[in-house]
Sequence to fold (347 residues):
Amino acid sequence: MDRIDLKNLTMQELVEVVAGLGEKKFRAAQLYDWMHKKEACSVAEMTNLPEALRKRLSEQFDYTVLTKVVELVSKIDGTRKYLFRLADGNVIESVRMEYHHGVSVCISSQVGCRMGCTFCASTLGGLVRNLSAAEMLEQIYSIERLTGEKVSNVVVMGSGEPLDNFDNLVKFIQMLCSEDGRNISRRNVTVSTCGLADRLKALADLDLGINPAVSLHAPNDAMRRKLMPVSNRYSIAELMEAVDYYFDKTGRRMTFEYSLIRDQNDTPACAGELAALLKGRNCLVNLIPVNPVSERNYERPAGPNVQTFQKLLEKAGINVTIRREMGSDINAACGQLRRHYEEESRG
Ligand code: SAH
Fold:
């Protein structure tokens, strides 16, 4: 049987484990504090725990820490891309971005992905496995330890489909935003989905107070099916029903991500169709010129087409931003760093 990972336990679960060891309850609070506030790298560091207890914990339990394999730093804006190794040897990517309002970290939720979006590098090798809550938390803790600076915003927009790893994602958010732990504001956490409509509704029911985002990328089913296999499972109409449900339940504004791909979804006609689709909804469209992936031949739209697309949406009364490009000198698209690393290690 797999050993229990201490870092993957909620406070309540930890209290039970500590009681099972015949220890007093306050030891659980101390342990939790070391793991999630002090971000200790090992049980050995927890100096206010008796040595015998530290020894037992180290011997009987796992303790997730990530190993930094690669760190790329942008000379333009200080964006950092990390490749971390997990205990089982798999590697994942995380990105740290500096904004005027604070530091934002983009984390992965799975090793690989099975959603199959045709423009995305994360999905090329399929899904390897889900990340645990501890492995998601540890991406943030590792970056804080490495840079010595606290993170204020977390976006679950790295590799993987977060709602395909639903239970671990929810546990991660609850631990990340708990007062006993890292205590990040729920308003500063964003989760992006490719559009698993049923799971989006389930997330709405939990009313976690986070910011939801949906990767739309096309204004109609025919076009979306070419880009995103998930749209064979859920039509845009079904997805929009889930989006409206989310808003009704939580009052949180939806962000729609829309990656612009030259001559595919970047035409004025597409902008018109998108505006009609989103009309009357409290939402924001985030336009992202596609990041070309070497395995695919998608191209970025010409600059003026991005502006035209934006203006057409604005004219129709839709809130729209163009994603600011961060770290363009280290700008391998999501999942490419890991992919190149794995290809090289395989030789
Ligand atoms: N699975 C989730 C979150 C991960 S991807 C989702 O689909 O939303 C984060 C965002 O980056 C998504 O909007 C995704 O569609 C987009 N993306 C992936 N590859 C891209 C690329 N090569 N260029 C531009 N955007 C990309």
